[in-house]
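Friendly challenge for the regulars: who can give me the structure tokens for this chain first? No prize, just bragging rights.
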Amino acid sequence: MENHSADEESEAVAKKKKVPFPYEILSLFIYREDKSITHLLRQFAEPAGEMNIKLPNAAAIHKWFGENGYLVKEALEPGGQEFWMPTQKGSELGLYTREGMFRGRQIVSVMFNEPAQYFLAANLEKIVQEIQKGG
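First reply, four minutes later:
Bragging rights claimed.
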């Protein structure tokens, strides 16, 4: 059995503990390619390096875009699974969908083009605050 000092143990705990998202790093954002929200949030966090950052919730952000008229839930076929789809407002912002397969099931991913990514980078902190307030 290994013996760990108190310092080593507190270091291990500190490494596991997630830190709040540092919104100031969004000023470093540079567009690379169109991405889904999950991949975009990971890219937003890259400048923080090895920090164990708590990323904003992708599903909650999709819901926020829905509540604010950018996305709507639609089924590809009657009675089928619903996916987020851009509204006219969402399309004008730069949201579009890409269909694919994941674990043998058809999925639809909402993609963010360059203007949509800069919109999210500029407004992420406000969006997360609105989500936390419940609207």
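Residues 70 and 90 are 4 Å apart (CA to CA). The chain has one domain: 19-133. Your move, everyone else.
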